[in-house]
Design goal:
The chain has three helices and seven strands. The chain is of the alpha+beta class and 133 residues long. The longest helix has 16 residues.
Length: 133
């Protein structure tokens, strides 16, 4: 899978292409967490696949949470996934935190969920926030 993004901080715009990667989440004041465009096929599936990008204009305070499947696929000792629903609930619970603290809270929730279960996959987590004007 691949997620590619270009952030234009001057115009507060994120241009991205999602090729089979987990769907990033937009946290916007006054709204429920929103999954961004599901995107395109996984890279390499079709020889002549055409990939389209999407553009998101960021409003003051917006946060974008980009994560790998190692986050949602984290198992607890009973074999239960952290899963997308738990991720969205965690983000909703901590939605007022700034980007760095939000990333820390999500990582802590994933590690708490795993408890003593072995880590079976890599985890990547990036949180981007537009500062208030």
């Amino acid at each position: 899978t691949l997620f590619y993004a270009l952030l234009d901080p001057r115009h507060h715009r994120l241009r991205f292409c999602n090729a089979g990667h987990e769907r990033p989440v937009l946290l916007r004041d006054g709204e429920d967490p929103t999954l961004l465009d599901p995107g395109n096929l996984v890279v390499g599936i079709l020889e002549n696949a055409v990939y389209h990008d999407a553009v998101l204009d960021l409003e003051p305070g917006d946060r974008i949470v980009i994560y790998s499947d190692g986050v949602t696929d984290m198992l607890d000792p009973d074999g239960q996934f952290f899963d997308l629903e738990r991720l969205l609930v965690t983000l909703q619970t901590h939605r007022d935190l700034p980007a760095d603290a939000l990333a820390d809270a999500l990582a802590a929730a994933v590690h708490e969920h795993a408890a003593t279960a072995p880590v079976a996959d890599d985890m990547t987590l990036v949180v981007i926030q537009r500062r208030s004007d």
